Amino acid sequence: MHAIRIREYGGPEVLRWEPLEVGEPGRGEVRVRHTAVGLNFIDVYERTGLYRGELPLIPGHEAAGVIEAVGPGVSQVRVGDRVAYASQSAGAYCEARVMSTQQLVPIPDGVDGRQAAAIMLKGLTAQALLRQVHRLRKGEAILIHAAAGGVGSILVQWARRLGAQVIAVVGSEEKAQLARELGADHVLLEAEDWAAQAKAVMGGRGVHVVYDSVGRETFFGSLDCLRPRGLMVSYGNASGPVQPFAPLELSKRGSLFLTRPTVFDYVPTRAALLRAARELFDLIASGAIRIRIGQTYPLHEAEHAHRELAARRTTGSTVLLPSTAA
């Protein structure tokens, strides 16, 4: 078995393909042989040290696979079961992993392993953003940044399903076409004055909610396109973390609300995890949400995948494929 490890923080070159001793599962644990691993911006944050963990570190928080061994006391899953997970602890960039059954979700029929790996963390994030952080209602207007990306593409489709008016912001004409295909009502380009255009689309009133995964470059523009008492949901740092600012910035724009959620606070128990995953998988099975895997890379080429993601040359979800994948 092999894994991608980082032994120091830095650029994509610090991602190293190294041998891995996996071991046997203990009580309440299983060994999962990965068939697909999801790529997310949190992996970049951990590689660069924006989010710091104990080194050496195996990155990755999202994967799918097949159970190949079970430890004592395990009854809810068995060898051969297909499972997926979004884990708060890193460690997914590997060919096999021992982990607690409490983090695992069964993959239903009709969803393949690559889809499951592509949507566990992203899809659960979308579920939290639209159904818990703010329970989106029919007729509300929202703005979604990086709308052609992994989380963004799910948000667009799910929000339209809920009856919201969706303004999508993207980085290129190619991504604009994808956002239109996903169902966005209005598509704006990052290179233009998207904040002013968003307010114009809404007749000068602004949107109810902004979902911003970009961070530093878009933060104040996002505040500017909200209506009074609107909600700013800052859930990512693709362009870097937002710099400190005075709370007065919220009041002078109309008594705005600001939240910085993390998905794991919204699935704090296994029961909550299974409920959220069931809602997500049901929408995929019904065809209401289409999962677009824009690109795949061999797991051992994670360095290249990170360069493409950081340069925002990817669309939809990105999946890393272990060489041992069935």
Chain-wise SSE layout:
Blueprint: E1 2-5, E2 16-19, E3 29-39, H1 41-48, E4 62-70, E5 82-86, E6 96-100, E7 104-106, H2 113-133, E8 141-145, H3 150-161, E9 165-170, H4 173-182, E10 186-189, H5 194-201, E11 207-212, H6 219-224, E12 226-234, H7 248-251, E13 257-259, H8 270-286, E14 293-298, H9 302-310, E15 317-321
Provide a descriptive summary of the structure in words:
Strand 9, helix 4 and strand 10 form a beta-alpha-beta unit. By secondary structure, the protein is an alpha/beta fold. Helices cover 29% and strands 26% of the residues. Helix 2 crosses helix 3 and helix 2 (113-133) crosses helix 8 (270-286). The mean pLDDT is 94. The two termini are 14 Å apart. The chain contains nine helices and 15 strands. Strands 3, 4, 5, 6, 7, 14 and 15 form a seven-stranded mixed β-sheet that branches. It folds into two domains: 2-121 and 269-321, Alpha-Beta Complex (Quinone Oxidoreductase, Chain A, domain 1), CATH 3.90.180; 138-260, Rossmann fold (3-Layer(aba) Sandwich), CATH 3.40.50. The longest helix has 21 residues, at 113-133.
Structure keywords:
single chain; 326 residues; alpha/beta; Quinone Oxidoreductase, Chain A, domain 1; Rossmann fold; seven-stranded mixed β-sheet; six-stranded parallel β-sheet; 15 strands; 26% strand; globular
